[in-house]
Amino acid sequence: MPNLNRDVRLLKQARALTADQAEGFENPFVLGKFMISLSSAAVAMWATPLAAMTAPFATIALPLNRLYAYPFIIPALLKLTQVRVYLTPGTAGSVYRLGVYSSSALPPWKPEALLWDSGEKDGTATGYQTFTLITPLVLLPGVYGQSYQAGVASPSFYYGTPALLPPIGFHEGNPQIGYYKITAYAALPNPYPSDMVIINNASFHYHFSWWRLELP
Fold first, then answer.
1. What does the pLDDT look like over 138-191, one tens digit per residue?
2. How far apart are CA 91 and CA 155, in angstroms?
């Protein structure tokens, strides 16, 4: 049973650190460290999905007609208020959707129920695109799926490489970093399709968004 009082205490301790001190904090509900970027006495945090991502980041066009889901580790009781992506360059005529899914309680953390659908977004502009959740999501400690789907044309998203072990592990020497389902572009399905495919290749691309997390 999660100790929510302890989780809140840990988060308060972490957000009180200076930016130089804030390398992350330990939590027994996830493996490893949750690396976060903090300003001094921050009220909220923009967080990346894994313990660490390599830099500099690069961009790659998101393939059409594929619904992606990548694990996002939440180490404490937190509230998701905004989601941000970075597009470069913007692509004429492109549209896309973002989503958040719950995941299975145990590895390999398959995406399950749809928790948030951004609706269709314009992928023609270059730069950060930030979306505010009308109703913030209160997230218990665990693993969630950040989801993407492109339609009409392919917007170019930031991607990175997890600097630690991939979230789903390895199979025959290849990293397993997420899931996809080949499906026509539409409103995100609920639940995530059960006949998903594991992303398993040496290129190790991990499309990601930033999540703005706050105390609930």
1. 999 989 999 999 988 888 887 776 655 677 777 777 777 889 999 999 999 999
2. 5
State the pTM of this model: 0.77
What is the 3 state secondary structure string of 91-143? CCCCEEEEEEEEECCCCCCCEEEEEEECCCEECCCCEEEEEEEEEEEEECCEE
Q: Calculate the alpha carbon distances from 157 to 1, 60, 69, 85, 113 in Å.
A: 37, 6, 14, 7, 24
Structure tokens at 41: 């006495």
Q: With H, G, I as helix, E, B as strand and everything else as coil, classify residue 4.
A: helix
User: Taking a C-beta distance cutoff of 8 angstroms, is the pair 166, 177 a contact?
Assistant: yes
How far is the C-alpha of 158 from the C-alpha of 86, rounded, in Å? 6
Based on C-alpha coordinates, what's the Rg of the chain? 17
Do the Cβ atoms of 99 and 80 come closer than 8 Å?
A: no
Separation between Cα atoms, residue 201 and residue 192, nearest integer Å = 22
Containing 132, the helix (H) or strand (E) segment is: strand 127-139
Beta strands in 165-208 (DSSP E): 169-171, 174-182, 197-200, 206-207
